[in-house]
Amino acid sequence: MARTGKDDHQEAVVVDQLLRKLRPFDRTYVEEREHVSGVRPFSRVRSRPPLRPAGVWARVTLGFLLGVALTQWPYAHACEKPLILYMVAVTTVLVAGLWGARASWRSRMGLAHIIALGTILWGLTLSAQEVLPRVGYAKTRMSWRCVERQHAGANPIRPGADRIRPEAPSVAPFVLAEVR
Q1: Domain presence at residue 69
Q2: Element (H, E) at 166
Q3: Mean pLDDT in each 10-residue stretch from start to end of the chain (180 residues)?
Q4: Residue 168 falls within a domain, yes or no?
Q5: CA distance linking residue 56 with residue 106, whole number of Å
Q6: Is residue 79 part of a domain?
Q7: 56 CB-near residues (< 8 Å, 6+ apart)
Q8: Could you tell me what percentage of the chain is helix, strand and coil, using 3-state DSSP and rounding each to the nearest 5?
Q9: Is 89 exposed, middle or buried (0-12, 13-18, 19+ CB in 10 A)?
Q10: What's residue 20's pLDDT?
Q11: The domain containing residue 63 runs over which residues?
Q12: What pLDDT is recorded for position 180?
């Protein structure tokens, strides 16, 4: 036989309290009470429904294609403005990867999330490839700025040295002594 009465009501109250503790912002399990004072809360936390799979895949694919296209960068990006432009493009790949990862995480799409995480890793790799030699961590040293050489007539050894080129790395004095 089914029990009814006071015990059922007490159990229902306990269950409601436990559900409130598990999901403090979810109001589907809690009775909506009218406010006695007539004052309504300013805002309520509402969860957004997950995105459609086509929207998630569009975001993830966009980040992936940006990462692939960046490997075919057609311009030199050794120093100054071209380098800044290239780093902005790399940052765009990172942001697109994060955007796709967030969307795929909220929509519970595992494969899309893995691809988005790969895009983030690729963006970090591309940025490390440019940043690490310039901060002294890599074997070869590069400069952030280009050095403008003297005019063609002023340098008799190398007449075409007036073009803008990356700054040459400094050579240790003992290496020069061995060469002589």
Answers
A1: yes
A2: strand 164-166
A3: 66 80 64 52 65 93 95 82 91 96 93 97 93 81 68 51 50 46
A4: no
A5: 9
A6: yes
A7: 100, 103, 104, 107, 109, 112
A8: 55, 5, 45
A9: middle
A10: 76
A11: 53-134
A12: 43
